[in-house]
Inverse folding.
């Protein structure tokens, strides 16, 4: 089983990275520089569910940490 701290860190890092890629043109510039600008139109289809996934992991880790501290 994954440690609560590792789960929380993974959730926070994933949330920050996916939010950075969702709300800034980091991936657009990178993909354009690599010549893969045709993929840019599909980024929102992938990045928004990834952002929701990592936010839910972060919330689950916080909930799990809080429930274990109440015992």
């Amino acid at each position: 089983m994954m440690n609560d701290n590792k789960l929380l860190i993974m959730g926070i890092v994933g949330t920050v990275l996916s939010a950075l890629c969702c709300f800034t043109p980091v991936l657009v510039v990178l993909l354009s520089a690599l010549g893969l600008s045709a993929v840019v139109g599909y980024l929102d289809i992938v990045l928004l569910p990834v952002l929701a996934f990592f936010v839910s992991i972060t919330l689950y880790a916080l909930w799990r940490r809080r429930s274990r501290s109440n015992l």
Observations:
- The chain is about 75% helix and 0% strand.
- Residues 2 and 22 are 27 Å apart (CA to CA).
